[in-house]
Amino acid sequence: MMENILLHICCAPCALYPLEVLKSKDFDITGFWFNPNIHPYLEYKKRLSEVHKISKILDFPLVKGDNYNIEEYLEWISSREGNDRTSRCARCYEYRLSATARYAAENGFDAFTTTLLYSKYQNHRALKEIGEKFAEDFSVKFLYRDFREGWSRGIKLSRKYKLYRQQYCGCIFSEYERFEKTADLVLEHYEWIPRRKEDAENKG
User: Fold this and answer.
1) Residue 193 lies in a domain
2) Is 194 among the domain residues?
3) For 23-71, what is each residue's pLDDT tens digit?
4) Which pLDDT band holds residue 193 (cuts at 50, 70, 90)?
């Protein structure tokens, strides 16, 4: 009997190789979008739009599990102990995977997994431990796969489908870490374009 898998999708490019592997195993896949960590809002919308795009191209159903609850997310993540990167990332994994496991259990899925397991920038040991913890808590199987082996394949597929490839993980902390050394250089090349005539006249 075909297993129903709920696949938490962090972004479209990271989903391509896991989808290819899971489809080759004849799993029945449903995508699950739950990423209130993504900042700012336009980045969140852009990534969600690209996930909708691949759900149509690759023909799989997609569930939108959150409505950008950024205040709740920031309150939750800041209420835990430890403010170093490792601690923050683990709490972020917990927040998103707990929601995924809960939805999988409440909606009759056989198992859940996540495209975070594709990224070579994520902590696989922590992801595996957290996934297995919530599998036990919600009585639903966590399907662990090391999708990092398909890193190059995933990049090739993302170019094939002309997907937007983001430059940082998603949260405000990773955005800062990504651009803190290059922001001034980026701004030097920023061209201010007046939107209205009076703006042009007042420029100075």
Assistant:
1) no
2) no
3) 999 999 999 999 999 988 999 999 999 999 999 999 999 999 998 888 8
4) very low
Q: What is the DSSP letter of 49?
A: H
Which pTM value belongs to this model? 0.86
For residue 172, give the CATH number of its domain.
Answer: 3.40.50.620
Statement: residue 14 has pLDDT above 70 = yes
Cα three-residue angle 10-175-181, rounded to 5 degrees:
145
C-alpha distances in angstroms, 58 versus 26, 29, 196?
A: 14, 11, 43
Residue 150 has pLDDT above 60, yes or no: yes
Residue 201 lies in a domain: no
Q: Answer yes or no: is 203 within a domain.
A: no
Residue with tokens 């995933």: 154
Cα dihedral sign, 160-164-169-175:
positive
Looking at the 3D structure of the chain, how many domains does it have? 1
Provide the domain limits for residue 136. Answer: 4-188
Cβ-count burial 157-194 (b if 16+ within 10 Å, e if not): bbeeeebeebebbbbebbbeeeeeeeeeeeeeeeeeee
Other CB atoms within 10 A of residue 37 CB: 25
